[in-house]
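Recall the central idea of this unit: under ordinary conditions, the amino acid sequence of a chain determines the structure it adopts. In this exercise we apply that idea directly, starting from the sequence alone.
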Amino acid sequence: MNTHSHTVAEFTFLNALSAIAIAFAFITIMSLLKEPTRQKVNALIIAGAGAVYWSGGLGLWEFLFGALMIFVAYKGLKHKYFIGIGWLLHTVWDILHHLYGNPIVYLAPTSSAGCAVCDPVIAIWFFMGAPSVFDFFKKRKLMTS
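Accordingly, the structure predicted from this sequence is:
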């Protein structure tokens, strides 16, 4: 891991707000899927999230992390909290890449830091059971009627 020529891009408040907006957009889009499809699709996404940084500058660790994420994704097929754990693991990986490796999106130097803000929001949603946001609004409408 060569960190001598790595420059850490500045991450601003606007970058953080954008990342949170992306998390809410992701949650809204995923809410369109019915269970158990939502859980299965997100387990697959976690498996893929373990591979997005391959060749990202951290050497063999990239592949070991990918293997760990495949295991977590497999467990996520049965238990949603494993998908939340996967998002938190990816958050740590995002921070490491922001500080020492290559960004997740080559042309966006703050993309890994943004991902590190976005991922925990999604993880919290999974720790809550990944409820559909549309069900939340339906329940509120019934309560006010």
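The mean pLDDT is 90.
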